[in-house]
Amino acid sequence: METEATAECEDVRMTESHERPRMPWRFKPRFWWISASTRLKLWRVPRLNSTGGGRKGRGAWSKATRAWFRRASLFSAVILSVGLSLAIAFAAYLTLRSLLPAGTDPIQPKDLTQFSLVIAAGIGGVVALVVAYRRQQGIELGRFIERFGAAAGQLGHPDVAVRLAGVYAMAGVADDTLGHERQQCIDVLCGYLRLAYFSATGENHESELVHKVPARGGEVLEHRYQYRLNDKEVRQTVLRIITAHLQLEARESWSACDFDFTGVYFEDADFFHAIFRGGTTSFARASLAGKESSFENTTFDSGFTDFSDATFTAQRTSFMLANFRNIVAFDRATFGGKETLFNLTTFSGTSFSFRAVNFGKGTVSFVPLHWTPAPKFDWDEELSEAERRPKPDNVAFRDRGDGARSVRSDN
Predict the structure, then answer these.
(1) Which range, of 50-54, 299-303, 367-371, averages the lowest pLDDT?
(2) Beta carbons within 10 angstroms of residue 375's beta carbon
(3) Torsion angle, alpha carbons of 209, 215, 219, 222, to 10
(4) Rounded Cα gap, residues 178 and 173, in angstroms
(5) 342 pairs with which residues across the strands?
């Protein structure tokens, strides 16, 4: 009986301890409940590749630091700031102690109290600055969202005047921001150019096309097609604003951003003296029509410049004095104009490919200023016989005298 009673009591105690909720320690910070991996991610400051070097590397580090402060929680930012402040204070103490002569008098309680108050005031100031900085960032983010949404709404308006105002508003938002926010604005402008566009209806003041089809019983079916009124002027304005921000003397340069012109229809594109040095610049599947497409004096310094499957149908396409760097691809491009010029062009980078290119029947002139390495063509001797294509009859090579090659189609 006594054994059964003891076991019963132990069962009751176990049940009570199991059912009694465990109260957390009152003074235990909430941060301790975060797992070790989460704490590692929370405290880890982004590390950048040191190969950039120079002013560009320091600018990237400052951008990454600002981005980390935006993403980190307020508690983490305050703790990090306090830790840095204590480290700086300790370093200053060691420096002063090594420079000033050591005294034999003991530290008075009054001096110790004053020193403690100074440290407390300094830490309080640091915390206040961090909190104010985060509050200001929140205000700026809210202002960006408001301005970005208003400009995007104007771009989608049916009235051409409102859309033009939206283009300038979006460019203004991009000028007032940096990093990811600026890239978002540029993506919207490039996205507008990628929208379906028909040159025949781009400037004829028509907003709707009604196509009537007779049906059974004498009825008539109507198919309505709506267009963006006078969209050609809006698209040209977008292109002019982008090109102006890619100039060397631009007040706010967008050159370090990515540009996605995939599938865009350009009319008389003019990128004269533009500088592309972002991660990717894409003209893949783009159509460049009109009287002239100009890339003269343009610098393509992006990590990857893509003209694959692009169609050049302008009467004159000029890459004169253009500078191509890193990886460049013109694979499967079509040159259908009367004249295409690559005169005094510099190729200096990793890879330049002109494989499966249709050079058409017009004049295509390659007079390079510097080729390192030389572009890859379908008729290069290093290709195998199965891969090599015969050189077109209208393409001729001539040696300029310094090892450079030129190509000209005579028909």
Answers:
(1) 50-54
(2) 22
(3) -10
(4) 10
(5) 366
Could you tell me the two tokens for 324? Answer: 């191509």
With beta carbons less than 8 A apart as the criterion, state whether 310 and 285 touch.
Answer: yes
Token couple for 273: 């003296």
Q: Which two tokens stand for residue 22?
A: 């465990």
Please check whether residue 127 is in contact with residue 200, taking contact to mean a CB–CB distance below 8 angstroms: no
Q: For the chain, how many helices (H) and strands (E)?
A: 8, 20
Give this prediction's pTM: 0.67
Rg (CA), the chain: 33
What's 285-308 look like in SS3? CCEEECCEEECCCCEECCCEEECC
Query: Exposure string (b/e) for 177-186, b if CB count within 10 Å is 16 or more?
Result: beeebbbbbb
Among 41-55, 240-254, 295-309, the range scoring the smallest mean pLDDT is: 41-55
Distance in angstroms (rounded) separating the CA atoms of residues 221 and 231: 28
Over residues 72-118, the pLDDT tens digits come to 555 566 676 667 666 766 666 666 556 555 555 665 556 656 666 67
